[in-house]
Amino acid sequence: MTPWILGLTGGIGSGKSAVVEHFGRLGVHWVDADHAARWVVEPGRPALATIAARFGDQVLASDGSLDRAALRRLVFADPVQRQWLEQLLHPLIRQEVADKLAQAQSPYAIMVSPLLIESGQYRQATRVLVVDVPEALQLERASRRDGVTEEQIRSIIAAQARREERLRHADDVLVNDRDMSWLAAEVESLHRFYLTLRGGKA
């Protein structure tokens, strides 16, 4: 039977990675759209040449790979450039994710994406799980993890779907504001529930 697809999303610093890695330990196949976003711009892939042709060598690292931080600085400040980049990359990322999900052997498979709602990827999922976290905790976790300023984190939050918008699309919500053992128990509970579903529906 073809696995049904669970879309997993949450704002920056919400703990999506910790959640999906625990699902993975339970034997669930998962694909991260962020990883796919890196694969589609690897040296030798057409997208990298297209990006370099538009922005010049300033977006390339010395080894010829994409300097993601340089590109981020250029596009976050300019909605037109960000839109151009998204129109180039989103279809490629969607295809990459679909190819990887097609390899799943588990009863359901997870598509993780910070832009699940904004990019329309949620339409490829049968259910949506939102990892939610209070904004103060989100800022603290993300700035500690990425070593960037609160202002930069706020600009990323502003570019992502508003929390209310994410929650509106959610079938399931996991509030990740406690410790890792509590989180693991919550994931295991959701997993047991998901195994009872037929095609992602109760």
From TrEMBL:
ATP binds at G13, S14, G15, K16, S17, A18. SUPFAM superfamilies: P-loop containing nucleoside triphosphate hydrolases (SSF52540). Its main location: cytoplasm. InterPro entries: Depp_CoAkinase, P-loop_NTPase. Belongs to the CoaE family. It catalyses: 3'-dephospho-CoA + ATP = ADP + CoA + H(+). Its EC number is 2.7.1.24. One of its GO terms (molecular function) is ATP binding. This is Dephospho-CoA kinase. Keywords: ATP-binding, Coenzyme A biosynthesis, Cytoplasm, Kinase, Nucleotide-binding, Transferase. One of its GO terms (cellular component) is cytoplasm. It is an enzyme of class 2 (transferase). GO terms for biological process: coenzyme A biosynthetic process. Pathway: Cofactor biosynthesis; coenzyme A biosynthesis; CoA from (R)-pantothenate: step 5/5. The lineage of its organism: Bacteria, Pseudomonadati, Pseudomonadota, Gammaproteobacteria, Pseudomonadales. The keyword Nucleotide-binding applies.
